[in-house]
Amino acid sequence: MSESASIDPREAAHFGRLAADWWDPRGSSAMLHKLNPVRLGYIRDQIDRHWSADETDRRPLTGRKAADVGCGAGLLAEPLARLGADVTGIDAAPENIAAARLHAEGQGLEIDYRTGGVETLVGTYGLVTSLEVIEHVRDPRGFVLGLAQAMEPNGLLILSTPNRTSMSRLLMITLAEGLGRIPKGTHDWQKFLTPEELCALLKDAGLEIVDCSGLAFSVTSGFALSDNKSLDYFVTAKRPD
Prior knowledge:
Blueprint: H1 9-16, H2 30-50, E1 65-69, H3 77-82, E2 86-91, H4 94-107, E3 112-115, E4 125-131, H5 140-149, E5 151-162, H6 166-177, H7 195-204, E6 208-218, E7 222-226, E8 232-238
Parallel strand pairs: 1-2, 1-4, 2-3, 4-5
Antiparallel strand pairs: 5-8, 6-7, 6-8
Protein backbone atom coordinates (compact mmCIF):
# COMPACT_ATOMS: atom_id res chain seq x y z
CA MET A 1 0.00 0.00 0.00
CA SER A 2 1.39 3.40 -0.98
CA GLU A 3 2.12 5.75 1.92
CA SER A 4 0.02 8.89 1.62
CA ALA A 5 -1.21 11.69 3.85
CA SER A 6 -4.69 11.09 2.44
CA ILE A 7 -4.91 7.29 2.50
CA ASP A 8 -6.23 5.42 5.52
CA PRO A 9 -4.87 1.87 4.98
CA ARG A 10 -7.84 0.30 6.75
CA GLU A 11 -10.27 2.08 4.46
CA ALA A 12 -8.25 1.10 1.38
CA ALA A 13 -8.20 -2.54 2.47
CA HIS A 14 -11.97 -2.51 3.09
CA PHE A 15 -12.76 -1.27 -0.40
CA GLY A 16 -10.11 -3.46 -1.98
CA ARG A 17 -11.98 -6.51 -0.67
CA LEU A 18 -15.04 -5.37 -2.65
CA ALA A 19 -13.19 -5.06 -5.97
CA ALA A 20 -14.21 -8.41 -7.46
CA ASP A 21 -17.90 -7.57 -7.74
CA TRP A 22 -17.68 -3.76 -8.07
CA TRP A 23 -19.32 -3.90 -11.49
CA ASP A 24 -22.12 -6.27 -10.39
CA PRO A 25 -25.27 -4.12 -10.04
CA ARG A 26 -26.59 -6.61 -7.50
CA GLY A 27 -23.31 -7.02 -5.61
CA SER A 28 -21.70 -5.14 -2.73
CA SER A 29 -21.65 -1.90 -4.76
CA ALA A 30 -25.33 -2.13 -5.74
CA MET A 31 -26.08 1.16 -3.98
CA LEU A 32 -23.45 2.96 -6.08
CA HIS A 33 -25.03 1.58 -9.26
CA LYS A 34 -28.39 2.98 -8.15
CA LEU A 35 -26.77 6.30 -7.31
CA ASN A 36 -24.70 6.64 -10.49
CA PRO A 37 -27.41 8.03 -12.85
CA VAL A 38 -28.10 10.90 -10.43
CA ARG A 39 -24.38 11.57 -10.02
CA LEU A 40 -23.84 11.62 -13.77
CA GLY A 41 -26.81 13.92 -14.32
CA TYR A 42 -25.48 16.37 -11.74
CA ILE A 43 -21.97 16.31 -13.19
CA ARG A 44 -23.24 16.81 -16.73
CA ASP A 45 -25.32 19.79 -15.63
CA GLN A 46 -22.32 21.40 -13.91
CA ILE A 47 -20.12 20.78 -16.97
CA ASP A 48 -22.68 22.36 -19.29
CA ARG A 49 -23.08 25.41 -17.05
CA HIS A 50 -19.39 25.95 -16.37
CA TRP A 51 -18.17 25.64 -19.95
CA SER A 52 -21.41 26.77 -21.66
CA ALA A 53 -21.57 23.40 -23.39
CA ASP A 54 -24.36 22.33 -25.73
CA GLU A 55 -26.56 19.98 -23.68
CA THR A 56 -27.07 17.84 -26.79
CA ASP A 57 -23.33 17.34 -27.28
CA ARG A 58 -22.51 13.73 -26.41
CA ARG A 59 -18.80 14.51 -25.83
CA PRO A 60 -18.66 17.88 -24.05
CA LEU A 61 -15.32 17.06 -22.37
CA THR A 62 -13.43 16.53 -25.63
CA GLY A 63 -10.01 18.15 -25.34
CA ARG A 64 -10.15 18.32 -21.54
CA LYS A 65 -8.32 16.30 -18.91
CA ALA A 66 -10.32 14.83 -16.03
CA ALA A 67 -9.21 13.12 -12.83
CA ASP A 68 -11.42 10.93 -10.66
CA VAL A 69 -9.86 10.55 -7.22
CA GLY A 70 -11.05 7.52 -5.28
CA CYS A 71 -12.27 5.99 -8.53
CA GLY A 72 -12.94 2.46 -7.26
CA ALA A 73 -13.28 0.17 -10.25
CA GLY A 74 -14.26 2.97 -12.62
CA LEU A 75 -18.02 3.55 -12.28
CA LEU A 76 -17.50 7.27 -12.87
CA ALA A 77 -14.21 7.27 -14.77
CA GLU A 78 -15.69 5.30 -17.68
CA PRO A 79 -18.63 7.69 -18.26
CA LEU A 80 -16.23 10.64 -18.10
CA ALA A 81 -14.15 9.00 -20.82
CA ARG A 82 -17.29 8.50 -22.91
CA LEU A 83 -18.00 12.22 -22.50
CA GLY A 84 -14.72 12.84 -24.32
CA ALA A 85 -12.30 13.46 -21.45
CA ASP A 86 -8.73 12.23 -21.21
CA VAL A 87 -9.28 10.49 -17.84
CA THR A 88 -6.93 9.61 -15.00
CA GLY A 89 -8.37 7.43 -12.23
CA ILE A 90 -6.71 7.24 -8.81
CA ASP A 91 -7.54 4.76 -6.04
CA ALA A 92 -5.83 3.67 -2.85
CA ALA A 93 -6.65 -0.01 -3.33
CA PRO A 94 -4.57 -1.85 -5.96
CA GLU A 95 -7.36 -4.44 -6.26
CA ASN A 96 -9.73 -1.71 -7.44
CA ILE A 97 -7.24 -0.41 -9.99
CA ALA A 98 -6.74 -3.93 -11.37
CA ALA A 99 -10.51 -4.38 -11.70
CA ALA A 100 -10.87 -0.92 -13.29
CA ARG A 101 -8.18 -1.62 -15.89
CA LEU A 102 -9.70 -4.98 -16.80
CA HIS A 103 -13.19 -3.53 -17.20
CA ALA A 104 -12.04 -0.51 -19.22
CA GLU A 105 -10.12 -2.81 -21.57
CA GLY A 106 -13.27 -4.85 -22.13
CA GLN A 107 -15.13 -1.63 -22.97
CA GLY A 108 -12.45 -0.40 -25.38
CA LEU A 109 -11.71 2.64 -23.20
CA GLU A 110 -8.26 4.13 -22.61
CA ILE A 111 -8.10 5.36 -19.01
CA ASP A 112 -4.92 6.04 -17.06
CA TYR A 113 -5.49 4.18 -13.79
CA ARG A 114 -3.00 4.59 -10.95
CA THR A 115 -2.78 3.24 -7.41
CA GLY A 116 -2.24 5.88 -4.74
CA GLY A 117 -3.68 8.96 -3.08
CA VAL A 118 -4.38 12.45 -4.37
CA GLU A 119 -0.60 13.02 -4.32
CA THR A 120 -0.36 10.59 -7.23
CA LEU A 121 -1.85 13.13 -9.63
CA VAL A 122 0.66 14.66 -12.02
CA GLY A 123 -0.06 17.94 -13.80
CA THR A 124 -3.39 19.74 -13.73
CA TYR A 125 -6.91 18.90 -14.87
CA GLY A 126 -9.90 20.82 -16.14
CA LEU A 127 -12.29 18.58 -14.19
CA VAL A 128 -11.56 16.85 -10.88
CA THR A 129 -14.15 14.60 -9.27
CA SER A 130 -14.14 12.73 -5.96
CA LEU A 131 -17.49 11.24 -5.01
CA GLU A 132 -18.19 9.58 -1.67
CA VAL A 133 -14.48 9.62 -0.87
CA ILE A 134 -13.54 12.45 1.50
CA GLU A 135 -15.30 10.71 4.42
CA HIS A 136 -12.76 7.89 4.05
CA VAL A 137 -9.49 9.85 3.95
CA ARG A 138 -7.02 10.37 6.78
CA ASP A 139 -6.71 14.16 6.46
CA PRO A 140 -9.69 15.95 4.82
CA ARG A 141 -7.98 19.34 4.79
CA GLY A 142 -4.85 18.00 3.12
CA PHE A 143 -6.99 16.00 0.72
CA VAL A 144 -8.92 19.11 -0.38
CA LEU A 145 -5.67 21.03 -0.83
CA GLY A 146 -4.38 18.22 -3.03
CA LEU A 147 -7.51 18.31 -5.16
CA ALA A 148 -7.30 22.09 -5.50
CA GLN A 149 -3.65 21.93 -6.55
CA ALA A 150 -4.57 19.46 -9.30
CA MET A 151 -7.02 21.90 -10.91
CA GLU A 152 -6.29 24.09 -13.90
CA PRO A 153 -7.19 27.79 -13.68
CA ASN A 154 -10.96 27.96 -14.20
CA GLY A 155 -11.04 24.22 -13.49
CA LEU A 156 -14.03 22.53 -11.91
CA LEU A 157 -14.11 20.31 -8.79
CA ILE A 158 -17.13 18.15 -7.94
CA LEU A 159 -17.44 16.33 -4.62
CA SER A 160 -20.16 14.35 -2.90
CA THR A 161 -20.26 13.05 0.66
CA PRO A 162 -22.71 12.14 3.44
CA ASN A 163 -23.75 14.84 5.87
CA ARG A 164 -23.14 14.30 9.59
CA THR A 165 -26.74 14.23 10.79
CA SER A 166 -29.03 11.88 12.69
CA MET A 167 -30.69 11.12 9.34
CA SER A 168 -27.46 9.89 7.74
CA ARG A 169 -26.63 7.80 10.82
CA LEU A 170 -30.05 6.14 10.72
CA LEU A 171 -30.31 5.51 6.98
CA MET A 172 -26.70 4.83 5.98
CA ILE A 173 -25.36 2.99 9.02
CA THR A 174 -28.17 1.65 11.21
CA LEU A 175 -30.40 0.58 8.31
CA ALA A 176 -28.27 0.26 5.13
CA GLU A 177 -25.26 -1.36 6.80
CA GLY A 178 -27.36 -3.16 9.40
CA LEU A 179 -29.51 -4.78 6.71
CA GLY A 180 -26.58 -5.55 4.42
CA ARG A 181 -27.51 -3.07 1.68
CA ILE A 182 -24.07 -1.51 2.17
CA PRO A 183 -21.15 -3.65 3.40
CA LYS A 184 -20.82 -3.38 7.17
CA GLY A 185 -18.00 -1.12 8.28
CA THR A 186 -18.11 1.07 5.17
CA HIS A 187 -18.87 4.27 7.08
CA ASP A 188 -17.64 6.01 10.21
CA TRP A 189 -20.31 8.60 11.05
CA GLN A 190 -17.83 10.70 13.01
CA LYS A 191 -15.84 11.29 9.79
CA PHE A 192 -18.82 12.70 7.87
CA LEU A 193 -18.54 16.41 7.04
CA THR A 194 -21.35 18.94 7.10
CA PRO A 195 -21.78 21.18 4.03
CA GLU A 196 -20.52 24.11 6.08
CA GLU A 197 -17.36 22.25 7.07
CA LEU A 198 -16.60 21.04 3.54
CA CYS A 199 -17.28 24.43 1.95
CA ALA A 200 -14.95 26.05 4.50
CA LEU A 201 -12.17 23.63 3.51
CA LEU A 202 -12.72 24.42 -0.17
CA LYS A 203 -12.63 28.17 0.44
CA ASP A 204 -9.48 27.82 2.53
CA ALA A 205 -7.93 26.03 -0.47
CA GLY A 206 -8.61 29.11 -2.61
CA LEU A 207 -11.67 27.77 -4.42
CA GLU A 208 -15.00 29.43 -5.13
CA ILE A 209 -18.19 27.52 -4.30
CA VAL A 210 -20.45 27.25 -7.35
CA ASP A 211 -23.22 24.95 -6.10
CA CYS A 212 -24.29 22.85 -3.14
CA SER A 213 -27.19 20.44 -3.72
CA GLY A 214 -28.71 17.72 -1.60
CA LEU A 215 -29.07 14.07 -2.49
CA ALA A 216 -32.20 12.45 -1.12
CA PHE A 217 -33.48 8.87 -1.09
CA SER A 218 -36.96 7.40 -0.92
CA VAL A 219 -38.13 3.80 -1.11
CA THR A 220 -40.56 4.64 -3.92
CA SER A 221 -38.38 6.81 -6.18
CA GLY A 222 -34.80 6.00 -5.16
CA PHE A 223 -32.11 8.69 -5.28
CA ALA A 224 -32.83 12.21 -6.51
CA LEU A 225 -31.38 15.70 -6.27
CA SER A 226 -33.03 17.72 -3.52
CA ASP A 227 -32.85 20.92 -1.52
CA ASN A 228 -32.60 18.65 1.53
CA LYS A 229 -28.93 18.00 2.37
CA SER A 230 -29.52 15.99 5.55
CA LEU A 231 -28.53 12.64 4.01
CA ASP A 232 -25.89 13.35 1.36
CA TYR A 233 -24.91 16.27 -0.85
CA PHE A 234 -22.85 17.50 -3.81
CA VAL A 235 -20.54 20.49 -3.82
CA THR A 236 -19.14 22.08 -6.97
CA ALA A 237 -16.25 24.54 -6.75
CA LYS A 238 -14.08 26.30 -9.31
CA ARG A 239 -10.53 27.55 -9.28
CA PRO A 240 -10.31 31.24 -10.21
CA ASP A 241 -8.44 32.16 -13.38
